Amino acid sequence: xxxxxxxxxxxxxxxxxxxxxxxxxxxxxxxxxxxxxxxxxxxxxxxxxxxxxxxxxxxxxxxxxxxxxxxxxxxxxxxxxxxxxxxxxxxxxxxxxxxxxxxxxxxxxxxxxxxxxxxxxxxxxxxxxxxxxxxxxxxxxxx
Length: 143
Fold this sequence. Notes:
- The protein folds into two domains: 4-67; 78-142, Alpha-Beta Plaits, CATH 3.30.70.
- It is built from two helices and nine strands; from the N terminus they run E-E-E-E-E-H-E-E-E-E-H.
- By secondary structure, the protein is α+β, with helices and mostly antiparallel strands.
């Protein structure tokens, strides 16, 4: 691909390319760090059909996406809070086996990293990561 660079006095520079499929796109790089992505009209390659303005951070993120260096997977997982009731059969016991991941236990305004021998107390707030079905199962088990 051939990159056409045009200086824009007082603004920055424009960079435009035509893809192998004859689609023309461009980027105006402003001195301020702003970037405008331009999609040109297929019937008039000199006319912009659409423009998207990006700040510096957004431009870097799009560049990473285009370069393929960022991978984001959508997971069917959420963060949940479960309060251990005073009537729970697990008071003084360890967490039930096979539960979703408990990432922190909040007890008396203190955050405790869960460990293998942490027993539950009434009023503990469990911060849990997992899918809704697993979290509902844990909440039901805790009473």
